[in-house]
Amino acid sequence: MKPFTTLTAIAAPFDQPNIDTNQLCPTRFNKVPRGPRYAAVLFHDLRFNADGSEKDFVLNREPYRSAGIIVADRNFGCGSSRESAVYALYEFGISCVIAPSFGDIFANNCGKNGLLPVMLPTAEADAIRRQLNANVGATLTVDLAAQTVTDVEGEVHRFDIHPVRRKCLLEGLDDVDRTRQYLPAIEAFETSYRRERSWLY
Amino acid sequence: MALTMFEKIWARHVVTIDEGEALLYVDRALIHEGSSHAFDSLREQQRAVFRPRQIFAFNDHYVPTTGRDKGAAGIANPDIRDMVLRLGANAAAHDITLFGIDHPQQGILHIVPPEQGITQPGLLMVGADSHSSTHGAFGCLSFGVGASEMFHVMATQTIWQRKPKTLRIVLEGAPGFGVSAKDLILAIIARIGVGGGVGHVIEYAGSTVRGLSMEARMTICNMTIEAGGRAGMMAPDETTFTYIADRPYAPKGAVRDDALAFWKMLPSDDGAVFDKTVTLDAAAVAPMVTWGTNPEQALPITETVPDPRDARDEVQRAEYQSAIDYMALAPGMALSGIKIDRVFIGSCTNARIEDLRAAAAVAKLGRAQVPAWVVPGSRSIQHQAEQEGLDKIFTAAGFEWREPGCSLCTALNGDQLQPGERCASTSNRNFKGRQGTGGRTHLMSPAMAAAAALRGRFTDVRELAAKG
Ligand code: SF4
Fold first, then answer.
1. Is the same domain home to B111 and B247?
2. Domain count of the fold of chain B
3. What three-state secondary structure class fits B17?
């Protein structure tokens, strides 16, 4: 996994709440194997007409084609657990989504793929979106080690993140490596557990 | 100390705790064709499946619902065929139990495990699909995970989790005539909102829940995710134990008593503390339909499409307007007058035998005016329905009786709506394009969907059945 440390990138504002994973990646693309093809899948049905031509959509406009951050409204990534929504963001080049709240599973999936979900209070996320709407193409800076977002006006917003998630993202650590260290504990757990619940085995 | 059922199950599965994250032992994991990404990661990192007997695979999302005589080989679309075959190859390579396309008990990953007794009280289960909350109806902790987490589960049989909060939803009273579990859960979501359960495990309790069948309980737990909940659960009781008894994976003989004794200790203790409690009068719930593009946009069938001007704030006004535009409705339209193009009775929410019985009881009263599909949730349900003659009732009423799978719930297998088509659907999500690009989905119960088929428009099933 690619480490996430700091990022300064163009941020695209998404003002509608409840953007679900089916919009991020329409389900019919789930069969696409992971890789660069997912860049075109992101928001596919909002970005492209049936004949493949482009619709007027924020990510089809300059300079948002090279956006690295999305600032959204509440409940971003709700819906299906399919991780392809995250692959699509990743391949498009988005490494950070800022929103007042996220679908639980989506936020989890982000962290496992080197994407940083940043939860900011509604008022702060709204204010940043207003700035971005007023300054098309403005950049934000996200510093994971410091746990801050610096907005268009230079104001610094602190965010919380679980220390383990932070460590894994900073170091690009895979969860499985982390867990393998506990293998003896898992096996010990199984021994007593299986005795207690013999009917399961 | 008085504990909730969730706390009891959680505590017994903790292997270790690191920085406030618990490493939890996973009893059983459920995967489907979409889990190919997890298998790719196993291959890339050259890892084996740690406990293959505890992983169960299902061909459901991509299987066709007609013309299955030739099995996977008969699937015309090469991409779809490949998804079905790939799961089979991956399952075989890793020695994982597969309910494949040709299996006599094939079906949806949230329908087959309860039928087989794989789902049991007290377990910690994960599934590669957000509706894994369904299994909580048996008093277990079950939730959906993405492909990376599933890869982790397959490699270690554990999962890292932070402890969610608990929300208790108490349902009291007997649901009225024509009101089903689907109406109850739609009413709950309309009440607490699609974000109402975020960060919480929801335990459904109260006299209504105790009076429900396992099928109805599963319908409610299934849609917990639509309220944002991490998992849904219900206390196991005699209804649960009777349902499980004698199923292939159920405990039998001497160990059955051990299992029963354990299961009976699971329900939340008196005085257990939940972070939040919501109460709902089940007797006041009417048959529901969704009018918009998320599941909280649901109303009783007797209502009208809301006016964005009546929204509580700017944000909701914009949401209402965008939903009304997408759904091609107008504020003030009576819901019961809205014409439909298609009907879909199926999905892990509502394709169990009781759902099909409820739909058939209505189908018997007339003839479908629009194309109407009935897609059973599994082969076992299909056979049971055929033994009961339900298939005959459906076909005589002009409904199409199809083969089991996810089908039009998620439109991955080629079954899909055409742009602009309006569908009365018993599935769980009405997001834009969920059933096909440009498709318009209205969620409702099986009886309501069957009623809509007979009239070609949304219909209050209470009125139709009373006349019938
Ligand atoms: S029926 Fe629908 S919700 Fe259920 S598992 Fe299949 S695709 Fe998912």
1. no
2. 3
3. strand
Burial A86-121 (b: 16+ CB within 10 A, else e): bbbbbbbbbbbbbbbbbbbbbbbbbbbbbbbbbbbe
Long-range contacts from B242-245, C-beta under 8 angstroms, 24+ separation: B243/B114, B243/B214, B244/B117, B244/B120, B244/B138
Residue A75 lies in a domain: yes
**A198/B contact by beta carbon, under 8 A:** yes
Interchain pair B319, A108: CB under 8 A: no
Whether the pLDDT of residue B145 is over 70: the answer is yes
Please, are residues B207 and B173 in contact by the beta-carbon 8 Å criterion?
yes
Quick check: is B291 in a domain?
Answer: no
Say if residues A59 and A42 touch (Cβ distance below 8 Å): yes
Across the interface, of B151, B152, B199, the residue whose CB is closest to A104 is B199
Show which of B114, B138, B161 is a domain's final residue: B161
Q: DSSP alpha helices (H): ranges in B117-235?
A: 147-156, 181-192, 207-210, 214-222
Residues of A within 8 A of B195 (CB-CB) are 18, 74-75, 78, 101
Cβ-Cβ contacts under 8 Å for B177 (sequence gap 6 or more): B462, B465
Is B146 in the same domain as B226? no
Q: B162: nearest CA in chain A?
A: A162
B293 part of a folded domain: no
- CATH value at residue A17: 3.20.19.10
Which residues, including other chains, have CB under 8 Å from residue B147's CB and lie 6 or more apart? A82, A83, A109, B34, B35, B37, B38, B41, B128
Interface of B with A in 192-251 (CB under 8 A): 194-195, 198-199, 228, 230, 251
Decide: helix, strand or coil at residue B286: coil
Closest residue in A to B295 (Cα–Cα)? A79
Report which protein residue has its CA nearest ligand 1's atom 2.
B409
Question: Domain of B382?
Answer: 303-467
In order of A9, A72, A124, the CA distances from A97 in angstroms are 12, 7, 14
- What is the residue-level pLDDT of chain A in tens, covering all 201 positions? 889 999 999 999 999 899 999 899 988 888 788 889 999 999 999 999 989 899 999 999 999 999 999 999 999 998 877 789 999 999 999 999 999 999 988 998 898 889 999 999 999 999 999 999 999 999 999 999 999 999 999 999 999 998 888 988 999 887 888 898 899 999 999 999 999 999 998
Q: DSSP H helical segments within A1-103, as ranges?
A: 21-24, 38-41, 44-47, 84-92
Residues B308 and B432 in one domain: yes
Q: B347 alpha carbon to ligand 1 midpoint, in Å? A: 6
Q: Judge if B74 and B189 occupy the same domain.
A: no
Return the ∠ at Cα A112 (arms to A110 and A116), rounded to 5°: 40
Distance, CA of B350 to CA of B424 (rounded, Å)? 13
Residue B15 lies in a domain: yes
**pLDDT tens across B243-293, in order?**
999 999 999 998 999 999 999 999 999 999 999 999 999 999 999 999 999
